[in-house]
Structures are given as structure tokens and as C-alpha cells.
Amino acid sequence: MSDTLFAIARSGMDVERLRMEVIAQNLANAGAARLPGGEGYQPMRLVSGPNAVSGFEQALGDAARGYTVHAPEALAGTRSYGVQATAAPPRIVHEPANPLADQDGNVAYPGVDHAGEMALMVQTQRIYEANVVMYNSARSMFMRAMDIGGNSP
Known about the structure:
By secondary structure, the chain is α+β, with helices and mostly antiparallel strands.
């Protein structure tokens, strides 16, 4: 029981830390212009989801146990599945004096949405903090339980 609580909180913190790294990478590359006709930075998104057992293993385990929804094994936290490039088009800015400008004087920058990245960063921070609070609450509960057990005759 105790390991599950801490493992779930830890998995949530791990995923949100990775999400924050992807956001930082997007914001760091927001001002990196593409070379004319070349590849540039494409904004990324972290793909995450429940840390579930595969479909076949889940179905086999559920059939053997006779229950499905509230199995303790189903409480396995979250995990990241990888980083995926978004389909955001490049942001075109007219800068004829820029050495990376094309014949028309346009420079292509990555299609990073600053407001969206900042909103996602705040949301990520709040989720991370919620996981920390849950971790500390569980730790406090277990410490109290040990105090109660230590005071019994």
C-alpha cells in the first residue's frame, strides 16, 4: 500500500519534469531562425498517459482475478510515451536586413506559441506541486501511524 502511493506521486513528478524540459526546449528555440530552404526547429510535445498494463496482459489478469476496475495493479501512476513534433507552421517575419532572410526578405522562425507554452508551463508546475503535496501527505500519514503504533503498550 505505501509503495503504491509514493510510486504514483513519483511517476507524476517524473512526467511533469520531462514536460517542463520540453517546454524549456521549445522556448529556448523560439528565436532560432531557419536557414533559407533548410530545416529548422519544430516545436515538441510530450505524450504521456496512464501507466497501464498492456491490453492482453490486462485482460488476462482481469479474467483470472474476476475484477477489473479497482484492481490495485491498475493504480500504477503515469508515464511518458515519448516526445512528438507538432504540426505548427513556421512563423514568417519580414526582416530584410537579417542575413538569413530569403529573396523576399522573410525569415522563418519556429511556430512556437509563447502564450500556450507559458500556460502549459504553469499547468505543469501546478501538477508537479500537487504530486509533491500528495507525497508529503502520504509520508505524514505514515509517520503518524508509526507514532500511534509506538505509543501502544
